Amino acid sequence: MRYGYWLPVFGGWLRNVEDENMTATWDYARRLAVRAEQIGFDLTLVAELNLNDIKGTDAPSLDAWSTAAALAAVTERQEIMVAVRPTFHQPALLAKQAANIDHIANGRLSLNVVSSWWEDEARQYGVGFEKHDDRYARTNEWLEVVDSLWDRDGVSFEGRYYRTEKTMLQPKPIQSPERPRPLLYAGGESEAAKEMIATRCDGYVMHGDPPAKIGERIADMRARRERLGLPPMLYGVAAYSVVRDTEEEARAELARITDVQPGSAGYENYQQWLAGTQLEQRVSLEDYSVSNRGLRSGLVGTPEQVRARVAEFEAVGVDFLLLQCSPQIEEMERFSEAVIRSA
Predict the structure, then answer these.
(1) How far apart are CA 262 and CA 16, in angstroms?
(2) What is the pLDDT of residues 119-134, one digit of tens each?
(3) Do 316 and 218 form a contact (C-beta atoms < 8 A)?
(4) What's the pTM?
(5) Closest alpha carbon to 27 in 11, 45, 48
(6) Cα dihedral value 21, 27, 28, 33, nearest 10
(7) What is the SS3 assignment for 292?
(8) Dist CA 67 CA 65 (whole Å)
């Protein structure tokens, strides 16, 4: 099992706590990333939203791509998985930008391709917002352009959404037999999403759910890959961690972080998110309290209980976990000591 973490570009993960002592600043991001490498975390996911989904739209949030470039320069080993939304980036320009960051990181960049969901954000930033399946059709075409430019020069492409003409891109991303180009991850539960991911991507990143449910999704994606004659994928799961000495302490913390009331900073965004995505199951406000259904993964309890839960995820085929926690540095220290370094 590999252990990753969400970089708190929004200044935290809790919709009901105004100040989590993890500010949306470069200083905090740098300190967290450097310490994460020291305590056993080898992957960070840098989310991309221009507005703050967690603390409210008037709160600060870090830009994903400039932050990723800076992280590449101050870290040595961890994979830097940057979320990218095709509706916000022309593919040829993004391919160029990403290749440059990959060189700064010495081959540690990967992309988490997200097909957008927030209509208000798109409107504020002057970006078109399409229907769900149209967004995935765009993403499929976008990935074809990026993949082609990372592979060769003189790429001409004409599709429904994008056009290039004899495009040159140098330098290419760092290439090796183990990694011919940056890994491409994506997530989604609609049929359009799963077909696109199975066809175009190297990894499937899932919202939190119990191991049995995650195992069903992995089996489905494995079958899709086999039908396409493609190699196995990597599988990651979002999870919110609460590790405490006793079950009573863990339950008390769980009650504290899920007390989200209508009218709080993130509640309106929760309603838009439900309207803008297609999920296999209904998401409650409690689920949404920490984003990405992280609590459903069940990494809440004593060290022994959390280690057992991690083993269940490993048994169904999960390759890495992407943790959220609050306050992040302190809770990642606790998780590292209780789970990673005790293995």
Answers:
(1) 10
(2) 889 999 999 888 878 8
(3) yes
(4) 0.92
(5) 11
(6) -170
(7) coil
(8) 5
